[in-house]
Amino acid sequence: xxxxxxxxxxxxxxxxxxxxxxxxxxxAGARGMLSGEIGEKLDVRQNTMSANLAVLLNAGLxxxxxxxxxxxxxxxxxxxxxxxxxxMEDCCGGRPDLCQPVIDEIACAC
Length: 110
Hints:
The protein has helices at 3-13, 16-28, 35-42, 46-58, 77-88, 96-106; strands at 33-34, 62-67, 70-75. By secondary structure, it is an alpha+beta fold. The protein has a single domain (3-106), classed as Arc Repressor Mutant, subunit A (Orthogonal Bundle). The protein has a three-stranded antiparallel beta sheet with strand order 1-3-2. Helix 2 (16-28) crosses helix 4 (46-58) and helix 3 crosses helix 4. It is elongated and about 50 Å long. The two termini are 26 Å apart.
C-alpha cells in the first residue's frame, strides 16, 4: 500500500459511523452482513448507510456481493492487512522483537 492509498483509507475511517461499520464487518468475518442488517445493528437510516458504505467501497476497505435484491458487504481483509503493513513498515528500527506485542494484539484469536 502506498501513502496515497493509506490516506484514502484513513479518511474513510475518520468518520464515526464508517469506523463502526468497518469494525462490525471485520467482526462478521467471511459471512459479511446485508446492508439492512448493518443499518439495523448501528441504528442508521438506509440512505445514510448507503452513503457511508459507498465511501468505504471507494476506499477499498469493503467489498460487496449482490444476492438477489439485497447486497451483502464484507470487510476487505487484504486492504486492512495492507494498511497495517503500511503503518508498521519501519516498525521498531529493525528490531522485530519490539514489534511482537503489537503483532500479538492484532493477531486473530479465532
